[in-house]
Fold this sequence. Notes:
The strands form six sheets. Strands 2, 3, 4, 5, 10 and 16 form a six-stranded mixed β-sheet that branches. Helix 11 (246-255) packs antiparallel against helix 22 and helix 15 packs across helix 21. By secondary structure, the chain is of the alpha+beta class. It contains 23 helices and 20 strands. Helices cover 37% and strands 19% of the residues. The protein is elongated. It starts with a helix and ends in a 10-residue tail after the last helix. The model is unreliable at 37-42 (pLDDT under 50).
Amino acid sequence: MKDYNLSNRQYVIGGAAVVIITVYLIRLFMLQIMSDDYKKNADSNAFLKKIDYPARGIITDRHGRLLVYNQPAYDVMVVTSEAKGRTDTAALCQALGITREEFDRRMEAIKDRSRNPGYSRFTRQLFLSQLSDRDFSVFQEKIYRFPGFYTQRRSIRQYQYGCAAHVLGDVAEVSQSDIDEDPYYQPGDYIGKLGVERSYEKQLRGEKGVQILLRDVRGRIQGRYMNGQLDRRPVAGKNLTLSIDCSLQALGERLLEGKIGSIVAIEPASGEVLCMVSSPGYDPRTMVGRQRSRNHRALSHNPWRPLLNRSIMGQYPPGSTFKTTQALTFLSEGIITPRTVYGCHHGFYYRGLHVGCHGHASPLSVVPALSTSCNGFFCWGLFHMIGNRRKYGSVQNAMNTWRDYMVSMGFGYRLGVDLPGEKRGLIPNADFYDRIYGKAWNGLTVISISIGQGEVNATPLQIANLGATIANRGYYYRPHVVRKVQGEPLDTAYTRRHYTKAARRAYNYVVQGMRSSALGGTCRELGRYDFEACGKTGTAQNRGHDHSVFMGFAPMNSPKIAIAVYVENGGWGADYGVPIGGLMMEQYLKGKLSEASKRKADEFQKRRIGYGSGNR
């Protein structure tokens, strides 16, 4: 009789044997074929791949003055498989000037795959960064006592001057997202975080080199593998020449000490940014070395937001500087002629609506209206444009025509400056107001946009670009802070002219109005200079004290500089905007300030508004 129990037992034993053999084979396959742990282990015993980091490109100003350069520094690297159980930890901590607790914390961070996903015990990992020359010399004498620890030469950024921090930016250790986005980087590498260091990172960083070194069983270097045939030399990063004038930048930062605001100056003939000041700022020299993280944290928590580049991120009402765009639009669209006059009896009055204005002659045409910064004139102009159904058919069509003029002049969208973080500002269109009011709105509803208030917002860069456009009589180049990249032509995006919708003849009248303002209008302080300056003030309304704004250019017929000054809570445009703008134009055009201007600069440097004054 057949023994079924014995037969079943044979199948069970046979099946178990097959399973065990299968699991064993799969494990061998995973270890030998799919996993590279053993290969890494073998390679790490025989070879040492030493990364040679390239020198980062240096940065100079438009006159060749050195702004950013490199200084040698050294990182301490560790291969944990070599260091485990073989290192005198107390002696290592003493040599590096760290505590045992810090040693343990760093080793834990290296092995924590959530914070260091690329960790391998067979490859070099960053243990301590940026040793000084002195600390490196002390450690290098004792490094033979610490198996698994190595030094690696790097360079760190140094800043020649304490200015232009928002333009220059800084360099810091890569984040995991940086590594995920670009395979060039590995943990412990450095990358540009802000400013041109960020936007021109690929040009500045260069290309890494590598040395493949042979080691014996004791880990001692025996020489280069294949006599260095597989080595690759590093390629230095490309140097940048900025369009920034260092002396002009430094003066601007002096003048805005203790104030919140921005100064932007542009060369109209090229779109090159001559200075870009944001206040409050910070000293870029504090953002290097092992203290960077602590200093950056302190700046991040500062309530005055010194890390914010207000020149391209601040979005403000442009105030009366915006009246120049209205004059250009009304003249080009035939809403007014150069001889059209409107009355202004301390402002615009219509159907119970009142927009106030200061005292001046009345009635007046467009040139004196710009010179005296008449609110009434430009309110009437917009009211007649938006309400002109014979020409536009509807208020919506009129509004969108107005919007198209503003956009063509560089408002409402990013200009595309070569710095990260630029904001677009706001220019409303018909859909914007339809969503708020339905169809029940008209020129009176939106009248405040005619004087740069209401829903209109712009960055100081856009206001300066408006000055450059008027100086050029109808076109601008995309603003940029990098004048030249070593070995590369300038991107054609920065060499193309952008023409506005406004007629050239309209620009001639606006220039006349701005020159008249400098000679006897709201910018009359500019009349003391021996160069023909043109200007337009702005007093931007605010919940608190009004903002002081100025936009201008000089000389009138061969413009070399266009400028915008924005001082938060500075009051009338003539209080801060005009005098600061005049000093900046004199510095650039003359190369220095007169004795009288030096005294005025000292006076404005000492003034405090809000920031630095003890009041918020």
